[in-house]
Design goal:
It is built from 12 helices and 12 strands. The chain is an alpha/beta fold. Among the domains are: about 120 residues, Enolase-like, domain 1 (2-Layer Sandwich); about 130 residues, TIM Barrel (Alpha-Beta Barrel), CATH 3.20.20. The chain starts with a strand and ends in a 40-residue tail after the last helix.
């Protein structure tokens, strides 16, 4: 079979809306790219976007711009016409691995452009193309609550009234005592008694008081807390014993060796779910982790990283194309997106070809 040759255009730097996160407003820059047919044929253009989030992403806009510019000046990207879609993308990027290694944001942008362009060529939505003939998964949507306690309680009640079953809140914060946190969680449960709380510790729990905190959360009532994301940081996750609540691996998945070790844990200690963030891990890596997690019976959660419209669409396509139905995913629209759609408890299928986004 033949190989498709695609040429990457030089990235365009675009100012985009800032987002408020963890108590600060963070300005962002988007680096938009386009992939064109290098064989002289007129075909669909694939669009991608790198949008690192300052203070959160593992790289920045300058690093992504340098990598994308280098790739634009290099030889065309060749896509083999063999294997399932995600493996075709992996094969296309493999010769450029050394350059892409310095910027996960650039890699994600290129993955998005490949998914967009190749699914357009196939006349399919990105989700249907990635699913490779499998039925798409229904994707329930969770809601990230505001940081201010009063606003969080009001948002919890509103989200529950719309039908959202999982509400996410940051815990183990340095600016909130354990007692104040407990009162907030109790108020959230009272405001939305039919919804579950997903607690995100971002690796910040004190290991010496881990069981005490888990016990206090569990005392809120059976089923009130869905799970705790990344309770402790790094290799400490491998040492967690039996706990009264389920937990999920999140930031730790960025370390391939640690992710492999988590997958190798005994059944009684394996995480209940993996949190997959395409902008932080890459689409190919997310699919690899999803396959391995599904084989171990580990649940899957997909979430955006306050991406722009293209990155958000790619994350939604990933969630719908997973090998098993995901847990409620952090894919609600956010203030940094251009296309503002109402928050809904289930992901609405995108039937347009490609990612369904035409960048300005």
């Amino acid at each position: 079979m033949g190989r498709l040759r695609l040429r990457l255009a030089a990235p365009r730097r675009v100012e985009v809306a800032a987002v408020a996160l963890r108590g600060s407003v963070r300005a962002r820059v988007a680096l938009r790219i386009a992939l064109h047919d290098d064989g002289g044929n007129v075909g669909p253009v694939g669009h991608g976007e790198a949008m690192p989030l300052p203070g959160y992403s593992r790289d920045d806009a300058d690093a992504a711009a340098a990598v994308l510019a280098a790739l634009a000046a290099a030889a065309p990207i060749e896509v083999p016409d063999v294997g399932v879609p995600i493996d075709r993308i992996a094969a296309a990027l493999r010769p450029h691995a050394a350059v892409l290694a310095s910027s996960i944001s650039a890699r994600f942008a290129l993955e998005c452009a490949l998914v967009d362009g190749l699914s357009r060529r196939a006349g399919l939505s990105a989700a249907h193309w990635l699913a490779a003939g499998r039925a798409l998964q229904p994707v329930p949507i969770s809601v990230l609550l505001p940081e201010d306690p009063a606003a969080a309680v009001a948002a919890a009640a509103a989200a529950a009234s719309r039908g959202h079953a999982v509400l996410k809140i940051k815990v183990a914060r340095s600016d909130r005592s354990a007692d104040a946190e407990h009162r907030l969680l109790a108020a959230l449960h009272a405001a939305a008694p039919l919804a579950q709380l997903r607690l995100d510790a971002n690796g910040g729990l004190d290991r010496a008081r881990l069981r005490e905190r888990f016990g206090r959360w569990a005392a809120l009532g059976a089923g009130v807390v869905e799970l705790v994301e990344e309770p402790v940081a790094g290799a400490a996750l491998l040492e967690l014993g039996a706990l009264p609540l389920r937990w999920a691996a999140d930031e730790s998945l960025a370390d391939p060796a640690l992710a492999a070790a988590l997958l190798a844990l005994p059944d009684a200690r394996v995480p209940a779910a993996f949190v997959l963030k395409p902008a932080q891990l890459g689409l190919v890596r997310c699919f690899e982790l999803a396959r391995a997690a599904a084989a171990r019976g580990i649940g899957l959660i997909v979430t955006h990283s306050f991406d722009g419209d293209l990155g958000h669409a790619a994350a939604c396509a990933l969630a719908a194309a997973l090998p098993l139905p995901p847990w409620p995913c952090g894919l609600a629209p956010h203030e940094g997106m251009t296309r503002r759609s109402p928050a809904q408890p289930w992901l609405v299928a995108n039937d347009a070809s490609g990612l369904g986004c035409e960048p300005d």
